[in-house]
Structure formats: C-alpha cells, structure tokens
Amino acid sequence: MTLTRRTFLAGSAAVAAVAATGVGTAASATASPTQSQVFPKGDSFYRTRVPQLFSASYQEPVALGSHTPVLVIGTGFGAAITALRLGQAGTQVAMLERGLRWPLRPRYTSTTEKLLRQGDTFSPETIFSDIDGRALWFRRKVDKGLHGLPIMAEDFFAGALEVIDQPGIQVWQGSAVGGGSIIYTGVLLAPEKRFFDHVWQGALSYDEMNATWWPKALATVRGSTMPDDIYQGKYGQRLLGVGPRPDPFGHCRTWDGLFTKAGHSPHKLNSNFAWNVVRDELDGLSRPSSTNGETNFGNSNGAKFDLTQGALAQAQATGKVTIHPQHVVTAIGQEADGRYWVRFNVINPFGAVVSKDVTVTCDKLVVGAGSMGSTELLLRAQHTGTLKNLNEHLGQGWGTNGDAAVIVRHALSAGLTQGNPSPSRILDEGQGRLPVTLENWAVPGVGANPSLIGLGLIASLGMTLDDTRATFRYNAAADSSGSGATIRSDGKPIGGVTVDFPATGNDETIRSLRGVIDHVADVNNIKTGVPGLVPDVNAAFTAHPLGGAVLGKVTDGYGRVQGHPGLYVVDGALIPGSTGTVNPVLTIAALAERNIAKIIADGA
User: DSSP 3-state assignment of 313?
Assistant: First the structure.
C-alpha cells in the first residue's frame, strides 16, 4: 500500500474536520470547529516552512507491499539498528513509523536566511520564540515542561515530541522518523557494574555488554566527548570581528565549577553531536540549534547525529530497507499459518486519516515502538486474542529510570544562551539516599548570567537508582480498536491501556536529588529553583520510559517473544525499569546489536 500525492493532499483538505478530541470525516465536518479555531496559524504556515512534510514522494518514496518478509514497527534506536543489521544480511525489511520524515538544513541557503536566522525545520525551542505545532505530537499545551515552564504549541500537528499523561507520571517520547534520537539530548553512557547487576539480577551479563556490545553501539551511533575548544568558548566568530566570542557552553563550565566546589568530580561523557555542525553555528554558517539549547523538538541543522543521518540512512543504503512514515499502527496479530499481520491508519500532518484500517502481513514481526507503544500493542493483542501465547509477565516491570529535572539559580556564567549537548556528569552515592547521577543540561533561551537575564538558571538532568515499578492495565471496555469507530487526533484508538505509576513513586528520587543539590547550593551560596515558577526538582515526568516486555520474562534472553516464533521486541520495553542511573540509549542500542546478531546467527 502506498500513499499517492493526490490522496495525501486530499487528506489535508479535511483539516477543518479535526477537533481537539479526535479526527472527523467529511460527514462530521459541520459539527467541528473552524480551521482557524483548531489551527490558529493555518496550514500554510507549515507548508511554507517545511514543504517536505506535505510531499508524498518525500515521505514515502517506496510503496509498502501487502506482504514483506520482515516488518519493523518504529524507527528508534532498537528498531533502526535491527533493520540495519537485517538489511546488511540481505533481508527485505519495511519499517512503519507513525511520525513524519523531517528534512535537515545544515547551512543557510541564502543571505536573507542568514540575516533573518531562518532554517527552522523543527519548532524553535527558546522561551523568546514562538513554539508551534511542530513541537508536540497532536497536543497544544503542556502546563509544565521539563524545567517547570509551560509549552504552548497552539496547533494540533504531527510534532516531533509526544507528551502522554498517565496516572502519577507524564511520559515524554519521540514521534518522528528516528524516534527518540530526534528529541533526546544525545548522551551515551554505560552504567557502573554494581548498578547494572542490581537492575538485571543476573539476567544479562555486564562483562559481555562491556566487552562487546556497548563499544559496538557507541561506534554505531557515533559517540564522542565535547572538544575542548568548544567547551572552553574559544571557538566561534566574533560579532563584526571584535568583542567576545559566542560562548554557549559557559553554563557547562559554571556547572562543573559548582559541583567541584561541593566536593564532586565531574567527568566527561559521550554524546552523538556532530561537532563540525556545532562549529558551523558558532561561525555563523548555520542557524543556531545546538548552541541555543534546542534539542527536545529536534535539531534543525543536524547538529545532533540522529538516526536519520546514521543507522536509518545506512539501512536504506543497503537497498533492502524501506521506511513508511505516517503509519499509525493500531493492532497486531498472527494468522493460523504462522504469518503475522499489522493493522494501521495512515494520517496526514494535521491528523486527518487518509487511509483507515489497512492490513499488511509479514513472516517476522519486530516490535520497536518504544516502551509505551510496544507494550500497548502486545497487551491489546493478548487481551483480544490476536496473539494467543503471550505470558503473564507482559505489562510488568515498568519504570521511569529515576528521571528528574534539577535547577539551581543565581550562578554567574558566561554567554547569553545555553547550548546542548551535555559535556559532564557526576555520580553521588551518599549515605541514606539513592545513588544519584546528575548531568549538565541546558535551559533553552535562558542566559546563564543573571546580570543580563535575571534568572540565572543552571539545569541538570538527574537519574536515580530507583526500584519503583508499575504495571500496565488493559481496559477492554475503553478500547475502541476493535470497531475502529473512535480514534484520537493521531489516528490511534481511544483508551485501552494505562500504566499505573504510584502517586508517591518519585518521592525517594526527589528526596535523594534534593539532598545533593541543597549541599551544592549551600557550599556555593546560591539558591535552588525559582519559587512559584521553576521547581528545584521536577520528577513529574520521565523521558526514559522502560519496561513492559522485559528481557528474560516476556521474551527469551535475546528479545524473542516466548510462545510466538518470529516475533521480537527490540526497544526499551526489554529493560526492567532502569538502566542504572544513566540514560538508556546506549544500552538499548547495545541490546539491539547483541540480540539481532544472535537472531541472524541462529536463523531465527
């Protein structure tokens, strides 16, 4: 099945039928709000800025057949690496992605663009900019973002970041070709052995991961530390050839100094930023993206070496792997002859469904839709009977990785902007609290120097070794996937699956992180948070949802789903709620490398 240009553009004409709570059809358009109410900016705003989002030939240049040897759901780290290795092995693979294929604009294309600082493929991400629908996946507003400040996206649009409200927790995840690689901060870390063993309890070998798979994954996703000239603010073009150089990483040096004075030892960490593009920004050749803290909605110029430049591009280069954006998978199952099937809706960038309840089949099915998406699809299949042999462990072992955003303020620093990526990390194992990691982070659009801006916020991403776990709950009565009559504004069924995270589940994380930063603040004679505006510790979200189809329980030791030969899980759903006080990406990528190598070697 392929989406023709005529069908795609006709679907865009149904924009007026899309309401805040779902997608209308031509028949229901009269009861829907006007286009100006639903989309204040109007569709021309998006068509003008990123026309590729509305080009069927750009989004899906190769047609999806009715049957493919291997179907992969998702295009994040686990899915991309799995597809790459299968393609290199000569297997034909089709990847289904609900989000859009976003182009990148590495350098200014004209003098006008440079003067106006244009080239924002993704939504800008500073508090002085007009955030728009490109930011959020069919959501207009997030009352409190990662740092406690609101996000106002205005329009319902297929933006790059999805924010999901669940009982007790808010989940942040990618929603674009490239998955989480588009919206994460680029950090690539392996955990300490003692923390890894605490989480995995012998189900996975640290020595094997450390000797083989973390190094392989680091090479695949191209990790490296921040070059010293960028970190020290010694690189970049002076305004009119005079005055100070731009110094968007002055806040990083301030962060290191604050924690060093408090007795910690900041050490460099790997990330997958393209330092040549960062230097282009500093030289005025590329629109600022990494150097002004944009990353959560995507780096428009490719400063972050996301999967669209790496594993996905390499996979497509094999000639065996195709990617099919805007395909919102609603259900999966297995036929009597052993073949698997996948049902999906095709949407346009405004959420109008242009093809509904399309079904394709495959010999082998790879589920890589992220912890939330993969677990939802498997639970729905278990409860509706389309996958009959899923076991009792499905939906268990879900955790937040101990995530929190941490803020101190009134710390002098150089520079008017705060850039990504994060160059430094500290680890604190103080008595009477959870082990804590803190990484230097950025507050987009907020200068680090309070004499110039007034707030002087210095941010950290915190992660703790927290054992709190939650279980997914399926409610058949609330699940509309069976009839397909009621769908959300992104083409997914309404209801059905919820993860119940305890209301007090983050209490120990907050207490432990607060203990660390209160000491840092006391030693440096600074404050934490901004009363009434920015909390000192915000643990109301997770950007690292993990678990639901845990390795060795729902699957065997290599991600093969028990009871269903030819069905695989390849993403964060495999990890039991935590990666041991570090960002999960490197471990997800390493597991994918490890598991697909075994699957290919075994032929199953």
Answer: helix
Query: pTM to 2 decimals?
Result: 0.92
State how far the Cα of 466 lies from the Cα of 434, in Å rounded to an integer.
7
- What are the residue ranges of helices labelled H in 350-465? 370-384
Are residues 552 and 408 in contact, defined by beta-carbon separation less than 8 angstroms? no
Nearest to 564, CA basis, from 347, 343, 394, 419 = 394
Tokens representing 378 are 């498997």
| pLDDT (tens digit per residue) in 531-564 | 888 899 999 999 999 999 999 999 999 999 999 9
Region class of 326: left (phi > 0), else alpha (psi between -120 and 50), else beta: left
pLDDT for position 450: 46
Q: Where are the beta strands (DSSP E) in 260-417?
A: 267-268, 270-271, 321-324, 327-334, 340-347, 353-367, 403-409
State residue 18's pLDDT score.
33
Burial of 585 (0-12, 13-18, 19+ CB in 10 A): buried
CA 598 to chain CA centroid, Å, is 27
Q: Rounded distance, CA 524 to CA 170, Å? A: 32
Q: What is the C-alpha to C-alpha distance for residues 592 and 599, in angstroms, rounded to an integer? A: 10
- 318 Cβ neighbours under 8 A, 6+ residues apart: 84, 87, 88
pLDDT band at 455 (very low <50, low <70, confident <90, very high): low
Q: Record the tokens describing residue 477, joined without a space.
A: 């009565």
For 357, the token pair is 């309840």
Burial environment of residue 367 by CB neighbours within 10 A (0 to 12, 13 to 18, 19 or more): buried
User: 250 has which bridge partners?
Assistant: none
Residue 202 CB partners (closer than 8 Å, separation 6+): none
Q: Which of 173, 133, 165, 116 is nearest to 44 (CA)?
A: 133
